[in-house]
Amino acid sequence: MTPSDVKATLSFSDGSPSMDLPIYKGSIGPDVIDIRKLYGQTGKFTYDPGFLSTASCNSTITYIDGDKGELLYRGYPIEQLAVHADFLETCHLLLYGDLPDAQQKKDFTARVTNHTMVNEQMQFFLRGFRRDAHPMAVMTGLVGALSAFYHDSTDINNPQHREIAAIRLIAKMPTLVAMAYKYSAGQPYMYPKNKLSYAGNFMHMMFATPCEDYEVNPVIERALDRIFILHADHEQNASTSTVRLCGSSGTNPFAAIAAGVACLWGPAHGGANEACLNMLGDIQKMGGVEKIGDFIKQVKDKNSNVKLMGFGHRVYKNYDPRAKLMRETCHEVLGALGLENDPLFKLAMSLEKIALEDDYFVSRKLYPNVDFYSGIVQRAIGIPVSLFTAIFALARTVGWIAQLNEMIGDPEYKIGRPRQLFVGSTPREVKPLAQR
Ligand SMILES: CC(C)(COP(=O)(O)OP(=O)(O)OC[C@H]1O[C@@H](n2cnc3c(N)ncnc32)[C@H](O)[C@@H]1OP(=O)(O)O)[C@@H](O)C(=O)NCCC(=O)NCCS
Question: What are the positions of the active site (predicted)?
């Protein structure tokens, strides 16, 4: 970390001694004030629920400028990666710091491809779930269970274990998501086909059956690959911070990633695209495009608790750059599949138009986020709505591992342990039951 010449001074109105706090400069983005000695020197904590002003780590992986609507993986703009790289190249970039050359790409692809199958016993574990279980419930279980199947890569402090766990997770996530889907559909599992691309293989495991040949549609293959690239990392969001916090105790990588899967499930995070599609379905049931006005009225009513899902973002206060790319993919996929007149798509486009012009959204800088479009694309591809967040988890796994590995390799890393402002009861006596 580069120290700044400037220091911050914290003073107190009650005359307590003031304190100088060092400042560090990022390569881009805001500087940070180092408060690590604050408690030791003043006996006070900082208070920042939701981490609105707190950097929990230093990182070299992903940079977001929410006001500009900029997203960089290792310095490369997402717009360029989405056009000039594929998902496995992006994985290499996130994990090792740079895009692979041709030989490195070949080697990395071969390593990932070599690990696409899962232990045969996993299918019996899967069988313990109800067929109608939510795929994210199943994925939380399956990913956590990987630590029981792959004992030889569970020591988070061993760099080789971390490396093999990383490759296994990237390779096996598509297989697990497809197995969860096939199980819910009551269809036989399809083993991975390693001659296919990462996205093509996923499509094969999802949509092929043993009875017929399956041809991968290149437009859909590219769209899925783009979905994976756009979701691969997003710096210190809720699930990534969960993975870091979970991993900071020294637990194994599979358990830490399972914690990330569980966090991602929430509707304010990865569950948003599912929530968005469900919302579109509800508006459609209310009467479709003509009822958008009524729906927007509910959204604006603070007592209704209704939100326009797929709009707004904690960090982006401008158009989410991933949303622009996904919007493009959305039009491409629907065009290729002849679904431009799909009622839900038309509804989404009308909703988008109205919300982008409405002062409520404009004044609050609420723009469509990536989930607004990714749900529509996935639905067109034939992915069931309940599986959307599992696809997000599949793509985000590489980001989680890159962030986890960065944390473990950081000499300043400590177990994560936030503090609190206690506002509960002061000490009191426990009365025996008869006197309460
Ligand atoms: C993502 C999200 C949690 C970010 O929340 P945040 O940064 O804490 O923003 P806030 O909740 O402070 O929102 C600021 C204002 O916009 C409103 N707002 C935010 N998102 C909104 C939405 N989707 N629909 C309607 N109003 C919204 C809030 O009510 C608040 O209004 P107020 O200032 O009058 O109280 C929030 O925008 C949201 O829930 N969006 C829908 C879910 C979604 O798409 N999530 C995917 C994220 S990738």
Answer: 313, 371
Burial class (CB in 10 A: 0-12, 13-18, 19+), 343: exposed
Which of the listed residues 231, 314, 356 should we mutate to test ligand 1's pocket, taking the one with most ligand atoms within 8 A of CB? 314
Residue pLDDT, tens place only, 361-396: 999 999 988 888 888 899 999 999 999 999 999 999
The answer to whether the CB of 362 is under 6 A from ligand 1 is no
How far, in Å, is the centroid of ligand 1 from the Cα of 365?
10
pTM of the entire structure? Answer: 0.92
The total of structural domains in the chain comes to 2
Atom 2 in ligand 1: residue holding the nearest Cα: 313
The verdict on residue 425 lying in a domain is no
By the 10 Å C-beta count (0-12 exposed, 13-18 middle, 19+ buried), 5 is classed as exposed
Pocket test for ligand 1, best of 366, 371, 372, 373 (most atoms within 8 A of CB): 366
Are 311 and 372 spatial neighbours (Cβ–Cβ below 8 Å)? yes
The residue with tokens 């194994």 is 252
CA distances in angstroms from 178 to 7, 125, 202, 206, 230, listed in the order given: 53, 15, 7, 5, 20
Nearest CA to ligand 1 atom 27: 307
- In a domain? residue 426: no
Is residue 399, in this structure, part of any structural domain at all?
yes
For residue 428, is it within any domain?
A: no
Within this chain, do residues 358 and 221 fall inside the same structural domain, yes or no? yes
Catalytic residues: 313, 371
pLDDT at residue 35 tops 90: yes
Q: 387 to each of 130, 197, 260, 383, how far by Cα in Å? A: 15, 21, 16, 7
Domain that holds residue 24: 2-55
Find the CATH number of the domain harbouring 32.
Answer: 2.20.28.60
Q: What is the pLDDT of residues 110-130, one digit of tens each?
A: 999 999 999 999 999 999 999
Same domain, 32 and 122: no
